[in-house]
């Protein structure tokens, strides 16, 4: 028996917009409203509006909130300036990735940790357990927030028409409390699409008025509602990892090519943090015998690689890796994939790489990530 | 979009036109096209291939998934729609017109295929 899927505060609105809904991590979420390709293009060229209320917010407060996060996560969060955000991870004692996170420092003694919907409970439980002995409190804030993202080149203009907040002064990976369309919101300049954009954390009851105000303000700029389907192709083009695909407990950050998020030079807690010994060993291993490397693959043909498909050597068919994400790219007009491949095949331009697409070996070009980078 | 009354339908969501001189046209329904999302690649059988009712004879790839294309009847492929190979989005935009997939000469000896009327198909898909 499974529980009924959870619904966001915008559920009725999505249905009135004709969204195709899908189960995602126990939530009933909009997959697309019309054509996912049109939604993707809107975000790349104009603006798109996303309901991300399934993400898991956890608030950490107290005099030792920073020390607790330094202990519990791999990043150096006590050094984070108030108003800034950081991409980080929470690992098992053995080094495996439990989740990737964005942490906002909202005040000196107040942080908000944003976890993936699928891992929110795991992260909450781990933070709660790891808080023992620290003068800090961990609170489940999932019920207290809706999250709306407006992403795309037109998003600063659209949001700017609804707020007095200093958006020009808001850097990438920063957040400030403000008011948007008379609704209180934490305005964050973060995102997961490869475009400029904002994520607005607001009270559930304020989500619908905020969505409607953004829709009205963005009408002339071509803003459209967007579902999870185009969010996935946008983040794939931008080379951004997705938990459950590029990241898992089977990999350490060093195996995932994200060793840079692990800060061994922390000064709090005597430099100790959960997973430190295992991650030092993983870093040493990665330096001596490089693990499979995350690369981009671009199709020469039109058949689409999917997660789990084998990457093979074109001559001989030896398995040299595995696709973690794949989709047709609306921007490039070709199928793309992210894949972990043996280091000997990881250099961009390496010849002789193919993907086994249901028994046929289709040629693929190895490229550096990301596939797409916006013009600044 | 309602299902055209003059067509017959498979439970695998293909439609089949009435035969003209023994040859029927096959496509996928708008219900199936909507469920797939944007179709980006179609692999069709080749002219001269023999297909069997209920068996896979090609593939339809969309952004999120790949689905088998099933033959609604047994017979020989007489024509495939090159336009839809070149522009798979036709499957979404015109599933009953420009997005047709192939033509098949029905093998009468294979027996009567199990197909649904438009109303039966609508009931089957809950539309």
TrEMBL record, chain B:
Alphabetical GO biological process terms: glycine decarboxylation via glycine cleavage system; protein lipoylation
Keywords recorded for this protein, A-Z: Lipoyl
Cofactor remark from the record: Binds 1 lipoyl cofactor covalently.
Record bears the keyword Methyltransferase: no
Modification type N6-lipoyllysine: residues: 64
Lipoyl-binding domain span: 23-105
Domain of life: Bacteria
Keyword Transport: no
Gene Ontology cellular component terms for the protein in this record: cytosol; glycine cleavage complex
InterPro entries to which the protein is assigned, alphabetical: 2-oxoA_DH_lipoyl-BS (IPR003016), Biotin_lipoyl (IPR000089), GCV_H (IPR002930), GCV_H/Fam206 (IPR033753), GCV_H_sub (IPR017453), Single_hybrid_motif (IPR011053)
Cofactor(s) needed for function: (R)-lipoate
PROSITE patterns (UniProt xref): BIOTINYL_LIPOYL, LIPOYL
Function noted in UniProt: The glycine cleavage system catalyzes the degradation of glycine. The H protein shuttles the methylamine group of glycine from the P protein to the T protein.
Family: Belongs to the GcvH family.
Quaternary structure, from the entry: The glycine cleavage system is composed of four proteins: P, T, L and H.
Protein name as catalogued: Glycine cleavage system H protein
The organism's taxonomic lineage, starting at the top: Bacteria, Bacillati, Actinomycetota, Actinomycetes, Kitasatosporales
